[in-house]
Amino acid sequence: MDPSSIIRKTAADLRVIPNLGDYEAERQHFSWEAVSRELSSQPHGGVNIAWQTVDRHAAGGLRDKTAFRFLAGGAPGRVMSYGELSALANRFCNVLRGLSVGKGERLFILAGRIPELYITLLGSLKNGTVVSPLFSAFGPEPIATRVNLGTGTVLVTTDALFDRKIAKWRDRMPTLRHVLLVADDGGTTAVPGTLDLAALMASALDECEMTPTTAEDAALLHFTSGTTGTPKGAVHVHGAVATHWATGKYALDLHADDIYWCTADPGWVTGTSYGIIAPLLHGVTSVVDREEFDAERWYGILQDESVSVWYTAPTAVRMLMKAGADIAKKYAFPRLRFVASVGEPLNPEAVWWGKEVLGLPIHDNWWQTETGGIMIANTPAFDIKPGSMGRPLPGIDAAIVERHKDGSVKVIDTPDKEGELALKCGWPSMFRGYLNNEERYRKSFAGEWYLTGDLAKRDADGYFWFVGRSDDVIKSAGHLIGPFEVESALMEHPAVADAGVIGKPDPVVGEVVKAFVSLKKGFEPSEALRLELLGHARKRLGAAVAPKEIAFLPRLPLTRSGKIMRRLLKARELGLPEGDTSTLEADA
Ligand code: AMP
Q: Which residue's CA lies nearest to atom 7 of ligand 1?
């Protein structure tokens, strides 16, 4: 099959009537005000994500419906209804009140995809406490950096993660007042300086009065990376639910009887917006798998859990492709009716692979931490151009723009011309700021446009095509990694004089993190030192962020003002033209 040929949709492809049938008509009639009206009004006014996602259902007809099926790698999992989830979140809200944790304080969660993550996240929101979920594969350094930037006062984690990543670093997080531990064996914990979450939950009440929150109150803090400086904390508000609801409807096509599986971890924005909020808003049942990728097990989950809507990532699709079609043939997916993916470019071959092996093409969609929700998507009813991210959803205006030196932008109307992807401000889940970094936030806008930092093209049919990033951030296995954070960790090693980090293209994970280091006087490159540096970085940064490759260079290419020219490191690594090197330091 020619990977570039269009996948035409016919009525026979649709197993249910899609929520977005007539794209043009829906875009024309759409208004965010109408969406807000469709979301239930809360008994005491205001908007709270926990009420919209859980309490509303628990108080109505979905009380006994399963919200989450937590799989436990072969062992009997835990099934949790909307009613139970609501009561457990109430308990946690009461736990926080008992600890005098209030509205606006920031609570961090460092845990795998265990029930307590979901319960404490929703309970915190009920208390008006802002939640920041952290990826459990982060090492101690990225964790401490984020907790400190967010002045976190509470950390919820497990005893194993505490032991490995927090215990020795706790005094580097001086704002933390409470560390609440979940026992990995399901029992109780008694670690000095921490509190046992199970014990606190056991003595808390099932009922609580929700702390009043408005649509503009902060709810979630998701960290993302830029080229330079520390990670940026993107602040999201309770009113974002309007976007999660609309995109769950249009881009994921959620229907009441769906069994839904989002493979993303809530430590990244997709796992929160679409692993927790959107499916609960739509009252569907979600499957949660806490284990890491395994082709056999994943096919088994799709089959045995009767998954009907699956939201995953290009790296995972490519890993399934690599595992071979023979494995897939052992399984059947009669209930699967819609598959979508996000986070990195989805190659046309992967779209077609879905059609051949799963019986359905993969629908790529695009968004980022700052947008809070899906902005551009391929949806069930319209044709797919494999390789394209799709078209802007109803309520979203996207354009390709050109930045001018004076800070203004010009919209490029000519089809297929490359420029920066921009979105017209005004959708409800747009981030409301970078924590403590007003200037960086302001620089993300030009007039009515939010500038995404992605380079893209729009074709004559209105489909958007990803071209690349306009900065040096790295996308590895769908995770955004800031080169500066990796360079800083490497430079803490006594042998390292300078470090420059790039994303090296990889056929499966998109890019792998590669570091170039120059050594201080008295140190010589050697295999032993290379391995030591890899180990040092992995211990500090964790497996998700640490470089996979390290190479020694006598000196790194620096600009005359002393900045590392990562672009040049990358061009040299890939054997590409070096481009403009006029700012390069002599001899570099
Ligand atoms: P994050 O903020 O970690 O979710 O990363 C967002 C970035 O991931 C975007 O700005 C893009 O660079 C990239 N990205 C997300 N979705 C896609 C997609 N469908 N195709 C290409 N790149 C994507």
A: 368
Encoded tokens for 208: 């609580």
Q: Is 343 in the pocket of ligand 1 (CB under 6 A)?
A: yes
| Amino acid occupying residue 149 | L
- Residue whose structure tokens are 């959803």: 393
Gap from CA of 78 to ligand 1 centroid (Å): 32
pLDDT at 528: 97
Write the residue with the smallest CA distance to atom 15 of ligand 1.
Answer: 343
Residue 478 tokens read as 């769908």
CB 377 within 8 A of CB 365: yes
Task: Say yes or no: CB of residue 223 within 6 Å of ligand 1.
Answer: no
The burial class, CB within 10 Å (0-12 / 13-18 / 19+), for 527 is exposed
Q: Confirm whether pTM is higher than 0.85.
A: yes
Are 92 and 116 a contacting pair, CB within 8 Å?
no
Q: Note the pLDDT tens digit of each residue in 339-364.
A: 999 999 999 999 999 999 999 999 99
Residue from 232, 480, 509 to probe ligand 1 pocket by mutation (most atoms less than 8 Å from CB): 480
Do the beta carbons of residue 434 and residue 233 sit within 8 Å? yes
Nearest Cα to 482, choosing from 170, 106, 146, 107? Answer: 146
- Asked if residue 348 lies in contact with residue 378, where contact means CB atoms within 8 angstroms, the answer is no
Nearest 5°: the CA angle 484, 490, 493 is 145
Check pocket membership of 271 for ligand 1, CB cut-off 6 A: no
- Max Cα separation, the chain? 72
Per-residue pLDDT at 404 exceeds 70: yes
Distance CA 51, CA 57 (A): 9
**Ligand 1 atom 5: the closest Cα is on which residue?**
368
Q: Are 235 and 433 in contact (CB under 8 A)?
A: yes
For ligand 1, the distance from its centroid to the CA atom of residue 345, given in whole angstroms, is 8
- Report the C-alpha gap between 255 and 249 in whole angstroms: 8
Residue 335 pLDDT:
96
Q: How far is the CA of 552 from the centre of ligand 1 (A)?
A: 30
The mean pLDDT of 396-425, rounded to a whole number, is 96
Cα 551 to averaged position of ligand 1 atoms, centre (Å): 28
